[in-house]
Design goal:
- Helix content is 39%, strand content 19%.
- The mean pLDDT is 96.
- The chain is α/β, with parallel strands linked by helices.
- α1 packs parallel to α6.
- The chain starts with a strand and ends with a helix.
- The structure holds 5-O-phosphono-beta-D-ribofuranosylamine.
- The site of 5-O-phosphono-beta-D-ribofuranosylamine has 13 residues, from α1, β5 and α6.
């Protein structure tokens, strides 16, 4: 392999997906490494996970900047410093500023806990997603890893993984089952994007 793609992971909370990415990146043949973790909040347990693995991390909050432009520039400066190729949103609960989206277009991943294009869009997050899936009587659910553009849950679907919805499922039970699938799916999505970068460079 010529080189590994360099990923940043953006979090706001527990960071179990961050952990699954860290664990996968530890594999010798995995085509990506995590070089930076950004959190929207200093309480996020995911920051502990990053520190434990000596991954540089920083809290960057929108309300500490006068404008969206200044906020974007602070994020982009860190991404440049850590030579980031790919951004993985992993439970990042804030809107990514447009300037960051356009700078990293086609190289920003998100993981959503339902089979998009169903059960996505503004307001569809957390337990609300699983409540909606059960209320609709779906027999299957599962996470979607997709590219991020300016519209919520809208970009190219990179990969999905189905899990059953069982008759007695509560939203909490379904969430747990989907989360297990997320931890398998997200590293796979990062691998796909990393390989896009590496094979493009190899063709040059
Ligand atoms: C996951 O359910 C993911 O689908 C959603 O946010 C949650 C993050 O969980 N985007 P964690 O912080 O990775 O544990």
């Amino acid at each position: 392999m010529s080189r590994k793609a360099r990923a940043a992971v953006f979090i706001s909370g527990g960071g179990t997906n961050l952990q699954s990415l860290i664990d996968s990146c530890a594999g010798k043949d995995f085509p990506a490494e995590i070089t930076f973790v950004m959190s929207s909040n200093e309480e996020a347990y995911g920051l502990e996970r990053a520190r434990k693995h000596s991954i540089p991390c920083r809290v960057i909050k929108r309300n500490e900047y006068d404008s969206s432009d200044a906020f974007s520039d602070a994020i982009l400066e860190e991404l440049r410093k850590h030579r980031v190729d790919i951004i993985c949103l992993a439970g990042y609960m804030k809107l990514l500023p447009r300037k960051v989206v356009s700078t990293y277009r086609d190289f920003i991943l998100n993981i959503h806990p339902a089979l998009l294009p169903k059960f996505g869009g503004k307001g569809m997050y957390g337990m609300k997603v699983h409540q909606a899936v059960i209320a609709a009587g779906e027999s299957e659910s599962g996470p979607t890893a997709h590219l991020v553009d300016e519209i919520y849950d809208h970009g190219e679907i990179v990969t999905q993984k189905k899990v059953p919805v069982l008759p007695d499922d509560t939203p909490e039970v379904l969430q747990k089952r989907v989360l297990v699938a997320e931890h398998e799916l997200y590293p796979e999505a990062l691998r796909i994007l990393a390989m896009r970068i590496i094979s493009k460079e190899a063709r040059k």
